[in-house]
Amino acid sequence: MTADRNAGKSIESVFRHFITQKDLPVLVSTNDADYSNVDAIFCCLPHGTTQEIIKALPKHLKIVDLSADFRLRDTSEYEQWYGQPHKASDLQEEAVYGLTELQREKVKYARLVANPGCYPTSIQLPLVPLIKANLVELKNIIIDSKSGVSGAGRSAKTENLFTELEGGMMSYGVTKHRHVPEIEQGLSDAANSKVTVSFTPHLIPMSRGMQSTIYVELASGATTEDLYRQLEASYKDEEFVKLLEKGVIPRTHDVRGSNYCYMNVFPDRIPGRAIIISVIDNLVKGASGQALQNLNIMMGFPENTGLGYLPLFP
């Protein structure tokens, strides 16, 4: 394992929950790492730093990148939303977007996988099958997402302090959240035409968990029952994506600490509209769990290796 500011420290001194584990390696700097006996890498660096590091890595390595650096195919769009030039356009062309259940075959043969963001995961999993089946209109898609505070990152920020968030909630990134182009890219691919969405994320006073509530117009002749059946058919054989029984509202509490995505669809009280609710753990299915799921596929391992645990309760 490599690190920047924590190089030279033991893993258990940085992450205390590993204190009972024996013979863990000391963290080394990225430049000092020996990759000769390494088969695969999870790259968990901030956006903008990943590009140069991955370019310098040995070509035999399989890489799952958890930053945003390779999620957007259009590097000019990356530069617009992330405010810096993209320095690895050749790798961008090689990278496969790793929304596992929807890109499994591409992930299987990839060397570099761009692990999706948490919000895009919770939104695309229910929406993409419905758009591909022409069951929802492409206009007026409204998405309201709520995340635990870990969704805003680990760095110290005043607005993320306990005293700032406890007992309340806060919208952030209004109209300019960096996951917007990633969401629209995936939905546009599904529709084979440009799709735009209204998306607003919120932080709520819990450490982990994410819910996306999606409001859509039904396509002409489509019903909420059609949407339910399409999601049922799309995910009936998937281990980690579960369509709940009709009428059951997905809860973040029920997927906490797991790689599961629970979803359901409901008729809106306004005729011709439907409401889709999707929940994930933003740190697992929205990040590390999906990364491991992707690497399992890349390496030819059973897809659920290291992921077959139940959600935490209570």
Radius of gyration based on Cα positions: 20 Å
Strand order of the largest sheet: 8-9-7-10-13-12-11
H/E element string? Answer: EHEEHEHHEHEHEHEHEEHEEEH
Percent strand equals 15-25%
CATH topology title of the largest domain: Dihydrodipicolinate Reductase, domain 2
Estimated structural class = alpha/beta
List the total number of helices: 10
Instruction: Using the 3D structure, state the CATH architecture of the largest domain.
Output: 2-Layer Sandwich
Biggest sheet statistics: 7 strands, mixed
- Overall mean pLDDT: 94
CATH class of the largest domain: Alpha Beta
Count of extended strands: 13
Overall body shape? globular
What name goes with the CATH superfamily of the largest domain? Dihydrodipicolinate Reductase, domain 2
Give the uncertain stretches in residue-range form: none
**Terminal Cα span:** 32 Å
Helix content: 25-40%
Number of domains: 2
Compose a concise summary of this entry:
InterPro entries: AGPR, AGPR_AS, AGPR_dimerisation_dom, AGPR_type-1, NAD(P)-bd_dom_sf, Semialdehyde_DH_NAD-bd. The protein is α/β, with parallel strands linked by helices. The chain is 30% helix and 19% strand.
